[in-house]
Design goal:
The structure holds two protein chains of two kinds.
Chain A: E1 2-8, H1 13-24, E2 29-35, E3 40-45, H2 50-64, E4 69-70
Antiparallel strand pairs in A: 1-3, 1-4, 2-3
Chain B: H1 3-29, H2 33-60, H3 67-85, H4 92-122, E1 130-134, E2 137-141, E3 151-154, E4 164-168, E5 171-174, H5 176-179, E6 185-187, E7 192-193, E8 198-199, E9 204-208, H6 216-225, H7 233-266, H8 273-290, H9 294-313, E10 316-318, H10 321-328, E11 330-336, H11 337-341, E12 342-353, H12 358-368, H13 375-384, E13 392-398, E14 402-407, E15 410-415, H14 417-423, E16 437-442, E17 445-456, H15 460-469, E18 473-477, H16 482-489, E19 496-498, H17 503-517, E20 525-530, H18 536-541, E21 544-548, H19 554-559, E22 562-564, H20 571-609, H21 614-617, H22 620-639
Parallel strand pairs in B: 11-18, 11-20, 18-19, 20-21, 21-22
Antiparallel strand pairs in B: 1-2, 1-3, 3-9, 4-7, 4-9, 5-6, 5-8, 10-22, 12-17, 13-14, 14-15, 15-16, 16-17
Helix pairs in contact in B: 1-2, 1-4, 2-3, 2-4, 3-4, 3-8, 4-9, 4-22, 7-8, 7-9, 8-20, 8-22, 9-20, 9-22, 10-20, 12-13, 20-22
The chains are: A alpha+beta, B alpha+beta.
């Protein structure tokens, strides 16, 4: 299913690209696109274990930019 | 400024005081070497500790190459050079690099925040509350809770929360947020109103016709909010570029520091540090600073974001920066005819009576067409106006032919040529009267015809002229009959037109230029502009599908890449100009960044080798930081122009 997630404190543009690469490697994620200016993430992931995937996504985001939160 | 931005500003100011304090102390007192370095290390660490920390922590999480890494290596390197050389005079360079870097970061963060805010304020049309009427009182609820069929009250100054029909009250609505149209729209009982408009003068009671999840404002917001995600080639290129770029630059810097001194040493030169190694290591460090890709990485998405936001405030919704790029390269615009270049509603142009007066012909036609829903019938009734109509009885609709009825005791038939043929009176029709016409017969005798035509939109001619000025080919495609197309084309300056097309013919024609070009997403693109009623396949087939005034049609909004909120063809050249301007800004920024950076690099390289330029070397840090931060600032300021 496709989710639109809001992001906060996304401060650097190529961090967004790094996050994209990290997130796309997570199991169960079909595709991901982050808009740096709009501070939004569109995540297309498998149904079922959404909570688990989302937690991994949050972790990936934090590892690149520690203050950045995914809502 | 946000809290963290204020904190950064304070830190910058304090570190500047410490920095100049240290400079003054060193100049007046001439302290011993270690004290000199230490006084400069204080402002350096004060401003740069978080940069150093983030570089270290990223190093451990396996992401080595980013700007904090570049800045840390460059500034620490400068500091180390001082220590090795036992020359405290150059220690200021390390502190200066960090302070400038922080200034640049702060500026970037403010500019990005400002651009995000101004775009979101342009787009802010989400209603927050609805005054729901319940048992004679009103209650403030969230628009999501209101159900279809319920009534909401919209007071002056409030936003219309949901799509609906006015059941009481008269007012003016400001539709600027939705359409960019500055003239207010008058509404009264029975009129449809869309959510997102602002009520200006009087209170309105509105009966809700759509749930909030399907309301106009919600759909627009969804469309615009996900617009950032269809990224353009330039945007993707820049991020991919920065990925290989930083490691590449680090490698080149390493070679710069090692190869020339080694070569000089091996060829029998001096192995001494100060003479052979120092200038090249220094140049390599400066090279690291100059090469930071921030200017490009921030300014490119920012230009596109500004363009999409600015266009939205003019009633032009674009579904992503990829369409900004494609539209800027547009070479051919295909227009649909009915509803796009023309209003899609007919008006009576000529009355050609025979054996009766014009007034009589029109009156009879209006009477017999009284109940018909055909667009031509509507045009005839409008032409006749509110005058008294004779009695009509035995009304009959004959599919594919016309209508028949008894008016004032006589049998009147009104319809097309086929109907006249069936009555056996087509010979009495004059040759000149063929086209969009209604023929009338009274008791089986031909009494004349009424010619009607589709009227052009007010700005169609201007839109086509503006496109011509932009060097764009203009082609009209229509499913309408050839003679009607010819009739429309008479008033329009077009490069070509094709008539009697089925939707699949349109798709083929729209794809043809791409096929001739050899590649579909090549240097030139084509756009198709339609009203979206039956154009969904063509909208999807063109490089850029533009749907016009189409917020009624879900299929069109889905299939289109650009949605024009207004019914105006002249928004097409406006959108193309905006996209071209944005692409120009993007190119300007890329060229500016590369030229300044390479310029400074060459200067620094020369300064390391030529004694005549060695005076420059003392300011190498300042030059290098300017080439990075200064260019970022200029590029960002330039990118912000895309919004206007």
């Amino acid at each position: 299913m496709v989710k639109v997630l809001k992001m906060e404190n996304l401060e650097c543009a190529h961090c967004a690209e790094k996050m994209e690469r990290k997130i796309s490697k997570i199991e169960g994620v079909h595709s991901v696109s982050i808009s740096f200016m709009a501070q939004k993430m569109i995540l297309d992931c498998e149904d079922g274990d959404e909570k688990g995937i989302l937690e991994k996504v949050r972790e990936a985001v934090r590892s690149v930019e520690k203050d950045c939160v995914v809502k | 400024m946000t809290g963290s931005q204020k904190k950064t500003l304070l830190r910058i100011l304090l570190s500047l005081i410490l920095f100049f304090g240290a400079l003054a102390v060193n100049a007046i007192w001439n302290p011993p070497f270690w004290a000199g370095v230490l006084t400069m290390t204080i402002p350096y660490l004060f401003i740069g500790y978080d940069v150093l920390w983030s570089a270290v922590s990223r190093l451990f999480s396996g992401q080595i190459f980013d700007e904090t890494f570049l800045m840390s290596v460059a500034s620490l390197g400068a500091l180390l050079l001082c220590v090795v050389e036992k020359d405290a005079g150059e220690a200021h360079e390390a502190a200066a690099i960090m302070i400038f870097y922080k200034v640049g970061e702060l500026f970037q963060s403010i500019a990005v925040g400002k651009s995000r805010r101004s775009v979101s304020s342009l787009l802010n049309m989400m209603p927050e509350l609805a005054n729901l009427e319940k048992n004679g009182t009103t209650e403030s609820v969230s628009p999501e809770e209101v159900q279809v069929g319920q009534t909401v009250l919209v007071r002056p100054g409030e936003r219309v929360p949901l799509d609906g029909v006015v059941i009481e009250g008269t007012s003016e609505l400001n539709t600027a947020a939705l359409t960019g149209e500055s003239l207010p729209r008058e509404v009264t009982e029975g009129d449809e109103v869309v959510s997102g408009c602002v009520n200006l003068s009087g209170a309105l009671r509105i009966k809700v016709v759509k749930p909030f999840s399907q309301s106009t404002v919600r759909r627009i917001m969804e469309l615009v909010e996900s617009a950032g995600l269809n990224k353009s080639k330039s945007e993707n290129f820049i991020t991919a570029f920065s990925r290989v770029y930083t490691p590449l630059v680090t490698g080149v810097a390493l070679l710069m520091a090692l190869i020339p001194p080694l070569a000089m040493g091996l060829s029998g030169g001096n192995w001494g540090f100060a003479h052979t190694w120092r200038p090249f290591i220094h140049a390599a460090l400066m090279f690291l600073i100059v090469s930071c890709p921030c200017a490009l990485v921030i300014s490119v998405p920012m230009s596109f974001f500004g363009c999409i936001g600015g266009a939205c405030s003019k009633g032009i919704l674009m579904k992503g920066s990829v369409y900004v790029e494609r539209l800027s390269k547009c070479k051919t615009v295909f227009f649909d005819k009915t509803g796009t270049l023309t209003k899609g509603s007919f008006s009576v142009k000529e009355l050609l009576p025979e054996h009766c007066s014009k007034e009589e012909l029109l009156c009879l036609a209006a009477a017999v067409e009284k109940y018909s829903t055909h667009p031509l019938a509507k045009a005839i009734r409008e032409e006749y106006g509110d005058g008294p109509l004779p009695e009509v009885s035995e009304y009959k609709e004959l599919a594919g032919r016309g209508v028949a009825a008894t008016v004032q005791g006589r049998k009147i038939c009104a319809g097309n040529l086929r109907m006249m043929k069936e009555l056996g009176i087509e010979q009495s029709i004059p040759e000149s009267s063929k086209g969009s016409a209604v023929y009338l017969a009274r008791d089986g005798e031909y009494i004349g015809c009424i010619l009607a035509s589709d009227t052009l939109k007010e700005d169609s001619v201007q839109a086509l002229k503006e496109l011509k000025d932009l060097g764009i080919r203009r082609v009209m495609l229509t499913g309408d009959r050839a003679e009607n197309a010819r009739e429309t084309v008479r008033f329009l300056d077009l490069d070509a037109y094709h008539a009697q097309l089925l939707p699949e013919d349109k798709v083929r024609l729209v794809r043809e230029p791409a096929a001739q070009d050899g590649q579909s997403s090549g240097n030139f693109t084509v756009a198709f502009v339609g009203d979206g009623i039956n154009d969904a396949p063509v909208l999807a087939g063109a490089d850029v599908g533009i749907a016009m005034g189409a917020f009624g049609s879900d299929a069109a909004v889905e299939a289109a890449d650009v949605v024009l909120m207004n019914d105006r063809p002249s928004d097409v050249p406006k959108a193309i100009r905006l996209c071209r301007k944005t692409m120009r800004l993007v190119k300007e920024n890329i060229i500016l960044a590369l030229v300044v950076k390479f310029g400074v690099l060459i200067l620094l390289g020369l300064a390391a080798v030529l004694p005549a330029l060695s005076v420059l070397e003392g300011y190498a840090g300042e030059f290098a930081v300017f080439a990075d931060v200064g260019v970022s600032v200029l590029a960002i300021l330039n990118a912000m122009r895309a919004m206007r």
